[in-house]
Amino acid sequence: MEAIAKLKNVSLSERKMRFVVDSIRGKSVDDALDILKFSKREAAEYVEKLLLSAISNWENKLDMAYSADDYGLYVKSIHVDGAGMLKRFRPAPHGRAHRIRKRSNHVTVVVSNKVELEADNTKTTEEQN
Questions:
Q1: Which of 11, 17, 18, 128 has the fewest CB neighbours in a 10 Å radius?
Q2: Cα(83)–Cα(21) distance, integer angstroms
């Protein structure tokens, strides 16, 4: 079972975000959260919240019947895409202007479980008799 979470229009460049994202790709959720918690990069805060959201989405998708801790949840895929760019100008020498590009990005994370979920095989007392 997979769950997806998306974060859109983060006002941080794609390159800075990819440094953090690459460090948690394919890791278990517990390891990924530890890496993000102790990372000094600003992007780690955004990705940590996004990963917690994906975990919550996974649990809610199964109507809170299963806990993420018991089923080996891991980061199946995570990627960063470019978003809109704010273009500004800054004065330069000799009456010229230099362009300033304020980049932003979109992040998508997919979490999945390694351990298979049990089928609900419980029978009521009427079916057993």
A1: 128
A2: 16
Q: What is the pLDDT of residue 125?
A: 44
CB 6 within 8 A of CB 17: no
CATH 3.40.470.10 fits 2-117, yes or no: no
3-state secondary structure string across the chain: CEEEEEEEEECCCHHHHHHHHHHHCCCEHHHHHHHHHCCCCCHHHHHHHHHHHHHHHHHHHCCCCCCHHHHCEEEEEEEEEEEEEEEEEEECHHHCEEEEEEEEEEEEEEEEECCCCCCCCCCCHHHHC
Name the pTM for this structure: 0.81
Quote the CA–CA distance of 17 and 23 in Å, as a whole number.
10
Look at residue 26 and tell me whether its pLDDT is greater than 50.
yes
pLDDT at residue 98, as a whole number:
96
C-alpha distances in angstroms, 54 versus 4, 40, 121?
Answer: 6, 22, 28
- The whole-angstrom separation of Cα 71 and Cα 80 is 26
